[in-house]
Amino acid sequence: MRVLVTGGAGYIGSHTAKELSNQGMEPVVYDNLIHGHREACKWGPFIQGELHDLERLRECLREHKIEAVIHFAAYAYVGESMKDPGKYFWNNVEGSLSLIRAMRQESVNLMVFSSSCATYGIPESVPISEAEIQKPINPYGETKLIVERALHWYAQASPLKYAALRYFNAAGADKSGEIGEDHTPETHLIPLAIEAVLGKRDPLKIFGTDYPTRDGTAERDYIHVEDLARAHVSALHHLANGNDSFCCNLGTGNGSTVREVLDELEKIAGKPVPADPAPRREGDPPSLVADPSLAEKLLGWKAENNLSDILQDAYRWHTK
Ligand SMILES: NC(=O)c1ccc[n+]([C@@H]2O[C@H](COP(=O)([O-])OP(=O)(O)OC[C@H]3O[C@@H](n4cnc5c(N)ncnc54)[C@H](O)[C@@H]3O)[C@@H](O)[C@H]2O)c1
After folding, report:
1. Which of 24, 141, 220, 284 has CA atoms 20 to 30 A from the CA of 116?
2. Any residues with Cβ below 6 Å from ligand 1, and which?
3. What is the largest distance, in Å, between two alpha-carbon atoms of the chain?
């Protein structure tokens, strides 16, 4: 199967392109490189292009005889989305609608979409199942929910089939060390903590030490990027085999607090992670942990890596 990977020069997209190739599929990366890395595109053709460029997208779908799309391309900084919501609606919503339009016009009918646990906002109950009401608390999460809803209605009215995968916290790196996480600016805990322990940045700020969790710090569900990549390929197979469109969580079902992440990292690095307590950030829920059982039921997929695997792979990549 020839698969267009939008955002395939980015973190999760590049790992998924590699997994597609490992499983005998042909990834074609489409990325404007605003946040991506050309050198992370090694598993098939690379096209530098913009989601809003309908004609270029159509040409690319035609020329490469694309049969399915995995759509990662988006902006993903929650804080920035609060300050400049228009930037997020323009890129994440209008860009996705342009892509869906191109797919409809070229009769490409399968899409796997990067959604997010940010669509749940502050959940009523944890672990979070797909039955949880989606009520985002920032424009970033809202853009992901709008695209999910658009896909729902397109799928009612056309042959389009989709999988919306709601990831929890992507982390870790390719086990062979070829690619890893390299966001600019970086806002994710694990790369920030690794850079702090390697002396490459100031001490880490622990936002909130008075949450109602085991040790007072916020709890998240960290999922290895290779497990995420496998889930995308499974979702594609599931749709290609004629099954219905679906939305599901991708997480491990196990939460780790900030303190637990730092303690585990200290064991790997062999030294303490410089870190200072700081006030809570507005809109940060105490705990976000997935109930991943639907993904297992539908796709036969389960995360294989735990927090220690994630940290070892991320640390190896950062020290390399
Ligand atoms: N990283 C996480 O923990 C996480 C969690 C939940 C959901 N997601 C979603 O997963 C997807 C991938 O996340 P990531 O961490 O790999 O991000 P990333 O920034 O590393 O990758 C996104 C890629 O999309 C490209 N891009 C952005 N806008 C584009 C446009 N208009 N046209 C063409 N290319 C464009 C960027 O250049 C970049 O290479 C995003 O949609 C994000 O919202 C990520």
Report:
1. 24
2. 7, 9-13, 31-36, 50-51, 72-74, 76, 91, 95, 114, 116, 167, 169-170, 183
3. 57
